[in-house]
Structures are given as C-alpha cells and as structure tokens.
Amino acid sequence: MTEEELRKLEEEEFNTGPLSVLQQSVKNHTQILISCRNNRKLLARVKAFDRHCNMVLENVKE
Fold first, then answer.
1. Residue 10's CATH number
2. d(CA 57, CA 34)
C-alpha cells in the first residue's frame, strides 16, 4: 500500500470506527468519560489523540 492509501484508510477508520467517538469529541469540544484500567474514571475534553489511544486531555476531573 502506498502512503496515500494508508492515510485514507486511517482517516476512514477515525470517522467510522470506534475512534469516531474521540474524533467527534475533538470536533465538537464535548466532554467524554474515560474508564481507566485501575477502575478510575476521567471526565475530560479531548484536545488530540492518535490511533494508539494516546490522548491530550484538558479540563480533567477524576
């Protein structure tokens, strides 16, 4: 696959797959509830994220 094809595939997955929830949150500046492994929950706004679910969060409440 070419680099362009990979970019289009990743963009399509961000818009239709499970990561679309994060994508919509970034676009609309809405808060999301994140459940962590240690059974804690975070309420935050997502500033940015990547395909590995690394996130830049703001206004985080635990």
1. 2.30.30.100
2. 11
DSSP code per residue over 9-61: HHHHHHHHSTTHHHHHHHHHT-EEEEE-TTS-EEEEEEEEE-TT--EEEEEEE
Stated pTM of the model: 0.76
Tokens of 31: 């808060």
User: Residue 8 belongs to what domain range?
Assistant: 3-61
pLDDT in tens, 32-51: 999 999 999 999 999 999 98
User: To which residue do tokens 């590995």 refer?
Assistant: 52
Count up the domains in the chain and report the number.
Answer: 1
